[in-house]
Amino acid sequence: MIEQKGILFILSGPSGVGKGTVRKALFEKDTSLQYSISMTTRDKRPGEVEGVDYFYRTKEEFEEMINKGQLLEYAKYVNNYYGTPRQYVEETLEQGKDVFLEIEVQGALQVRENFPEGVFIFLCPPSLDELKNRIINRGTETEQSVMNRLRAAKDEIELMDAYDYVVVNDYIDNAVDKIQAIVASEHCKRERVASEYKKLLEVTQL
Ligand SMILES: Nc1ncnc2c1ncn2[C@@H]1O[C@H](COP(=O)(O)OP(=O)(O)OP(=O)(O)O)[C@@H](O)[C@H]1O
Ligand SMILES: Nc1nc2c(ncn2[C@@H]2O[C@H](COP(=O)(O)O)[C@@H](O)[C@H]2O)c(=O)[nH]1
Fold it and tell me: Please, which domain of life does this record's source organism belong to (predicted)?
């Protein structure tokens, strides 16, 4: 019997495009996905909860995790560190469960190096004007932070060709449906490969 590992899905895209909103709506429909909670050095926003939205750490604590190799990927994004704790992802995949990362683009490209078999999805805004409106209307960022995030967004959007899928977040439900279809299709692909492999093993044992 061949044990199947889980699939690693990476949802990435510029700040404010709607990754968190789409991920939460997706998780209401698909309860088989496991969300990997990131670590960050940024300040907690009102309403955010330790261990739910992020693990909030000091710069020193974060750098210690980097030095101990405890992060699967990390990036410095607009003056703060963000990273994915390695242990949770590796153990959950080993248990055969799918893991879902929601991270920015530099980090996604690092994951690509270590997990080329991951499924990389770029969430794209309908336009840069709409992206700007979404970040501003969310009301979490200073004017300076909005500018920094939009500057980063232009570089990030240029890298969308490095992804397996591009989903435009025009309407939340549309984006969720498309990501659900990607998840289902990736499962079909892996099952087909596993069944071909099983047949090959049976033939070679004859
Ligand atoms: N399809 C959509 N149409 C209109 N507004 C949207 C849509 N998707 C998300 N939003 C809104 O855009 C804002 C930014 O969304 P969200 O916080 O989910 O983005 P994000 O990509 O996770 O941002 P960050 O990377 O900074 O965490 C929120 O106010 C959210 O309600
Ligand atoms: N490389 C990583 N990026 C991450 C991670 N967790 C979140 N993020 C991304 O950072 C920006 C800013 O987030 P915000 O919460 O301050 O708005 C955004 O694009 C997130 O998706 C991570 O573990 N690694």
Answer: Bacteria
16 annotated among ligand-binding-site residues: yes
Which has the closest alpha carbon to 39: 92, 103, 100, 112? 103
Q: CA-CA distance, 165 to 122, in Å (whole number)?
A: 6
pTM of the full predicted structure?
Answer: 0.94
pLDDT digits (tens, 9 = 90+) for 123-133: 999 999 999 99
Test site for ligand 2: of 71, 84, 103, 157, most ligand atoms within 8 A of the Cβ: 103
- Here the tokens at position 114 are 């270590």
Please write the tens of the pLDDT for every residue from 129-175.
999 999 999 999 999 999 999 999 999 999 999 999 999 999 999 99
Nearest CA to ligand 2 atom 14: 15
Domains of the chain: 8-36+96-203 (3.40.50.300)
Does the model's ipTM exceed the 0.95 cut? yes
Residue 13 annotated as binding site:
yes
